[in-house]
Design goal:
The complex is a heterodimer of chains A (571) and B (603). With 571 residues, chain A is α+β, with helices and mostly antiparallel strands. Chain A contains nine helices and 26 strands. In chain A, the strands form five sheets. In chain A, strands 5-6-4-3-7-8-2-1-10-13-12 form an eleven-stranded mixed sheet, covered by helices on one side. In chain A, strands 15-16-22-18-19 form a five-stranded antiparallel sheet, with no helix packed on it. In chain A, strand 20 and strand 21 form a beta hairpin. The chains are: A alpha+beta (571), B alpha/beta (603). Chain A: One of its GO terms (biological process) is attachment of GPI anchor to protein. Chain A: This is Phosphatidylinositol glycan anchor biosynthesis class T.
Chain lengths: 571, 603
């Protein structure tokens, strides 16, 4: 496989005093604010809890300190190796906003690697989804075999572990899942400080859901304790990404502050956190010509993010000086000018072509905007069974020419049992659009299988494009150095490229839908017409009628016999 | 049923039917026409009501304030349009971007099969500009469309201005759940066709277009705006789309409800609603309104830019601003508020509009006739008792033999060839009319060729008989007529299911022909009646009638010119947008009529 995830080795700093008491526990929190080219503001929270423990050994872990117990129990009970779950409301606009730190598809996404000791993976998966459904107050219990797939290449473990047998992997999305406060509250409760202190006080739902994009995620994986990787520890990353719209406030004043975004200011770091920082991306603004940040900070930091070297102003919340004399921090960004659309190197789009309710065609477009480098991408498509893919119509073309995928993994669907899974490895030529098309037929469902709002349409989850994209600057592969959290999620092996995952839009497809108010009328009418009208008419038309003499009476018959014996013609 | 299974009574019934065949036919025909005329009578129709719950109960408050600014934008647009001499693409892109939309353009080109003289175009090249307002926290699965055509001259500048004004206002609102696409299309329907084909990546008409860069998922509803004056007296709603398709009635209801709420006069077919339904003039007013709808629907043309959306199962309508000499005027802010209200309600939709009727006629904007009420019309008119009569006549001559049915088959079997030949020849003539003879590059030449072939088809009976050996028998024409009558019934029945109006108009003229034609009626008079009731003459009369209904009567010469242009438009509609009326007439209806012509001249 062209894309394989190397071992992750993420090292964290541990303050001396904590190491003495609880060598195995560490909590870090971080907020990155990036003013986007479109004028919108991207705020990304990351909370990381590290715990040096082993859930899998025989002894039950019972003493939890920073790590949430509910998740710890899930890991040990279901023998989870890695768990990634995200809830997203909205679609990340790559063309306006560039790449996010952590991509996620609209709706809910869950993918889990199980330990190879698990025997009944499907059963465990089923139980796990139901438990998670309870933990996150989400409809994850709707994940069943009809929307679960086992990708062979697209989702490799992000933590340590050399398991590549994808029979221990399960991946499912619920594109229709609507994310709201009820999902945010349990998510916040997993934090050591809750929403009482630290960065989490900013997470007020009335503001977070008043935005253009909202995404929250939980990632659990085993990571190395140090660069030698002698011991492993469990990492829990909780991330929350939100994009605030420039236009929505409406006053025309292009100005942002923590208070405006979150209706709160910061007064302290979470006391349990070993590090608590705010980063503001000022790469595009070295001289302060585009926007102005106040209060200013002398601390600068550089990090490799998504193939680019970015510069950040850093505010360390553990330092009292950050909060100034008013004892609260309210960052303010004032815009001065705006810029044009940017062109992300990799970008994907998807839509349904055609009209009518019989057939259709799914088009997936993949843009490589790199001027001279081509690179391979892995495309993963999971399509529900009620769209019957005609796989022989699959075409992949870039620049008008046929582009043969070097690897195709296709698992046909089974009606009402499992979805289609299509994975392929495609080389994207430089500066090109690659179009993948496949035709499908819309199935007629059984009448109980329709959702309560069948005319709304049926969702098809986002396709996933994973790739190692050539980077502009040499990536930092020295993982022993301390990095900000946001730059250290996807492990990086090569200096010349970085890992990117892009999700396309989900699709809304109309299926042939009966008029549900009609069955009674239709049944009555057809029964009447068939039974009375058609039946008797058919009967009349196919039968020929003749006048039949009524059978003669007994006396007449006897008379006839006598007449016959006499040789006289009968009566 | 016992009545029919008793042979004696059955025979009596059949003889009664055959004896009363002519009166029954006449009565049914009259009943059909009377029923149709009754449809426009208000007590017989239903009031419109909102079926869709998502749009019914929620109250929205309209606050669009910027009508004056929209007009200023419109004037700016007009200035740029004049400067560029066409669509000011760059200016539109810049303006839409400044309003915070994602802006994309689409180029298209189309060579018409022959020059369109009405609109003076042959080689069409243009650009569509559209901006997408992305709804916050929406996954790009649903969209609404608001479009305004960029027409040459001074028309429609206000529509574009209002569109841009609404875009700016909508952008600052937080309640959107569906993306809203603001589209300015060039070359009206051709541009719209290119955009829709690009959006759905289909190519039904062989147009060249550049692929679209941005999409908003499946489009739920669309409105097209036509506005050419700063103030208006009324808004007209246009519903008739391609091939007589209509949007869901709820869209019309929504428009009507908001006109009532905001206090704008609203019309349909350009006719205001009247309250005096019990007076003769009130009744004739609603008959006129309904007849206009029937004529427009029967033409199968899209009567506004919305007409092409319907193919893609997108509910769409055109709203036209009309400025007449009335006292009471509404300004642009009011229209903006009306559109705002409509879009907010459409935004609330959870499912596509599907609750209300798709097949209806409207004698006024507040009343409608559903399919259940108007279908009996066609049933009555098509009740072809004469087919039964013919069948009986064919079956009865050898009544002496044991089983009549088998014998009839033997009798008519030599007639198969004699029936088949006219059938095939008629259809070949139809194909000849339908095949587009386009080496000629003049509109008139094309139309006149079509008419010439059509007329030449009238000489066919003689040729048909030359092909047939021997004389046509009495049985022969009866079999042929039986086939022709059944053919007509099936054809018109199917047409009426898809496009009731077209089926109705054709039935109105063709059914009398079918009923009375035999070889034994006076030749010259019948031939004259037959020609008068042929599809082409029906079209000619329809042209005059339509002008009459629109209160714009024309002289015979003008009418004739109009007739020619209607034919050329029909051919163009077919090749540009895929309208089916012209091929239907040429390939099926005309050959069917030729069969009757054949019967008349049966030797």
């Amino acid at each position: 496989m062209a894309i394989t995830m190397p071992l992750s080795s993420i090292i964290h700093k541990q303050p001396q005093k904590q190491r003495d008491k609880w060598p195995s526990n560490d909590f870090q929190e971080e907020l990155v604010i990036r003013p986007l080219h479109s004028g919108d503001i991207y705020a990304s929270f990351q909370f990381r809890t590290l715990w040096e423990t082993d859930f899998m050994r025989g002894n039950k872990v019972s003493h939890y300190r920073l790590f949430p117990k509910s998740l710890g129990q899930v890991i040990s009970k279901f023998s989870v190796r890695e768990l990634h779950i995200s809830f997203t409301q909205g679609y990340w606009r790559t063309m306006q906003w560039g790449q996010p730190f952590l991509p996620s598809p609209p709706g809910a996404e869950l993918w889990v690697w199980f330990q190879d000791s698990v025997t009944d993976v499907d059963g465990t998966w089923k139980e796990l989804t139901n438990v998670l459904s309870g933990i996150f107050c989400a409809s994850l219990n709707f994940i069943d075999s009809t929307n679960t797939v086992q990708p062979s290449a697209s989702f490799k473990p992000l933590g340590i572990g050399n398991v590549t047998d994808h029979s221990f992997l399960r991946y499912a999305t619920l594109p229709r899942e609507i994310v709201c406060t009820e999902n945010l509250t349990p998510w916040k409760k997993l934090l050591p400080c809750g929403s009482k202190a630290g960065l989490a006080v900013l997470l007020k739902s009335e503001k977070l859901f008043h935005s253009s994009f909202h995404s929250q995620a939980v990632h659990i994986r085993p990571v190395c304790q140090d660069w030698q990787c002698k011991t492993t520890s469990w990492e829990l990353r909780q991330t929350l990404n939100v994009v605030f719209d420039l236009h929505t406030p409406g006053q025309g004043k292009r100005e942002w502050s923590l208070f405006k975004m979150f209706s709160r200011t910061l007064t302290e770091a979470c006391p349990l956190a070993s590090s608590s920082k705010i980063y503001i991306d000022i790469t595009d603004n070295p001289q302060g010509e585009q926007f102005e940040v106040s209060p200013a900070t002398p601390l600068l930091s550089q990090a490799m993010v998504l193939g680019d070297r970015r510069t950040f102003s850093v505010y360390d919340l553990t330092q009292q000086i950050t909060f100034g004399t008013v004892r609260s921090l309210n960052l303010l960004i004032r815009w001065k000018s705006s810029e044009d659309m940017l062109r992300p190197l990799l970008h994907g789009e998807r839509y349904v072509a055609g009209y009518g309710l019989q057939t259709g065609e799914i088009h997936t477009l993949m843009y490589n905007n790199h001027p001279y480098r081509s690179f391979p991408v892995l495309l993963l498509d999971s399509v529900p069974w009620y769209l019957r893919l005609y796989i022989h119509t699959l075409t992949v073309a870039s620049k008008g020419k046929d582009n043969k995928p070097s690897y195709i993994h296709y698992q046909p669907s089974k009606d009402r049992v499992r979805p289609h899974l299509l994975e392929m490895l495609v080389q994207l030529p430089p500066n090109s659009v690659t179009e993948v098309t496949v035709q499908f037929e819309r199935a007629l469902l059984k009448w109980t299988e329709y959702t309560p709002d069948p005319n709304h349409g049926f969702y098809v989850g986002s396709s996933v494009i994973s790739s190692l994209v050539p980077s502009i600057v040499a990536m930092d592969t020295n993982s022993t150095r301390e990095q900000p959290l946001f730059s250290s999620f996807f492990p990086c092996k090569e200096e010349s490229s970085y890992f990117v995952r892009v999700y396309t839009e989900p699709l809304l497809v109309n299926l042939p839908t009966p008029d549900f108010s009609m069955p009674y009328n239709v049944i009555c009418l057809t029964c009447t017409v068939v039974a009375v009208g058609y039946g008797s008419l058919y009967n009349l038309l196919t039968r020929s009628f003749q006048i039949d003499e009524p059978s003669p009476g007994l006396a007449k018959r006897i008379a006839n016999i006598i007449r016959k014996m006499r040789g006289v013609p009968p009566l | 049923m016992g009545l029919l299974s008793d042979p004696n009574r059955r025979r009596a019934l059949i003889s009664l039917l055959t004896r009363l065949n002519a009166p029954i036919c006449v009565v049914c025909y009259m009943a059909g026409v009377a029923w149709f005329m009754g449809l426009a009578f208000e007590p017989f129709t239903l009031r419109t009501y909102m079926s869709e719950n998502a749009m019914g109960s929620t109250m929205v408050e309209e606050r669009f304030p910027a009508g004056e600014r929209a007009l200023a934008t419109g004037r700016e647009f007009s200035a740029h349009k004049k400067k560029v001499g066409g669509m000011p693409v760059d200016w539109l892109v810049k303006t839409m971007q400044a309003r915070g939309l994602e802006v994309f353009t689409q180029r298209f080109s189309r060579t018409l099969p022959f020059p369109d003289e009405n609109k003076e175009r042959y080689l069409v090249k243009g650009t569509n500009v559209y901006g997408i307002l992305r709804a916050p926290r929406a996954p790009r699965t649903e969209a609404l469309v608001l479009s305004a055509p960029c027409t040459p001259g001074d028309n429609n500048n206000q529509a574009v201005g209002l569109l841009l004004g609404l875009a700016q206002y909508f952008r600052n609102q937080v309640y959107w759940a569906k993306d809203i696409i603001f589209l300015v299309n060039e070359h009206d329907l051709i541009g719209m066709q290119a955009w829709l084909e690009g959006y759905h990546h289909t190519n039904t008409t062989g147009m060249d277009w550049s692929p679209l860069q941005g999409r908003g998922g499946s489009i739920q509803a669309a409105l097209s705006l036509e506005l050419s004056s700063d103030v208006i007296t009324s808004l007209d709603l246009v519903l008739e789309g391609l091939n007589g398709q209509l949007p869901n009635l709820d869209l019309a209801n929504l428009f009507y409800a908001f006109c009532q709420k905001i206090g704008v006069l609203c019309t349909i077919q350009g006719k205001l609603q009247r309250n005096d339904w019990d007076s003769v003039s009130g009744y004739s007013h609603s008959v006129q309104t309904m007849m206009l709808m029937v004529m427009k629907q029967a033409s199968g043309r899209p009567w506004g830019d919305h007409g092409l959306f319907l193919r893609y199962h997108i509910e769409a309508a055109t709203i036209k601003g009309i400025n007449s000499f009335r006292q009471y005027k509404s300004d642009t802010t009011t229209i903006g508020r009306l559109l705002e209200g409509m879009y907010r309600k459409l935004n609330n939709l959870l499912e596509r509009l599907h609750q209300s009727y798709f097949f209806y006629l409207m004698p006024s904007l507040s009343h409608f006739v559903s399919i259940g009420y108007y279908m009996p019309v066609i049933d009555y008119i098509l009740l072809l008792i004469c087919a039964l009569d013919l069948w009986v006549q064919l079956a009865t001559p050898p009544p002496r033999t044991e089983d009549g049915v088998a014998d009839t088959e033997q009798m008519s079997s030599p007639g198969v060839l004699s029936v088949l030949t006219p059938l095939v020849i008629s259809h070949l003539t139809g194909v000849e009319v339908a095949v587009e003879h386009f080496p000629v590059s003049e509109t008139e030449a094309v139309v006149l060729t079509a008419i010439a072939i059509y007329t030449a088809g009238l000489a066919l009976p003689h040729n048909t008989h030359r092909l047939l050996s021997g004389e046509g028998t009495e049985q022969g024409w009866k079999v042929l007529k039986l086939v022709a009558v059944l053919y007509l019934a099936v054809l018109l029945g199917c047409t009426a299911l898809i496009n009731f109006s077209l089926g109705f108009i054709l039935a109105l003229t063709l059914v009398p022909v079918a009923a009375f034609v035999t070889p034994h009626v006076p030749k010259i008079l019948s031939a004259f009646i037959l020609v008068i009731l042929s599809p082409a003459c029906t079209l000619l009369f329809s042209v005059f009638f339509f002008q009459e209904l629109q209160e714009m009567p024309v002289s015979f010469i003008d009418g004739w010119m109009l007739f020619l242009s209607v034919i050329s438009q029909g051919i163009l509609d077919h090749s540009l947008y895929g309208s089916l009326v012209y091929p239907l007439i040429a390939l099926l209806v005309y050959p069917c009529w030729l069969l009757f012509w054949n019967i008349l001249f049966w030797k």
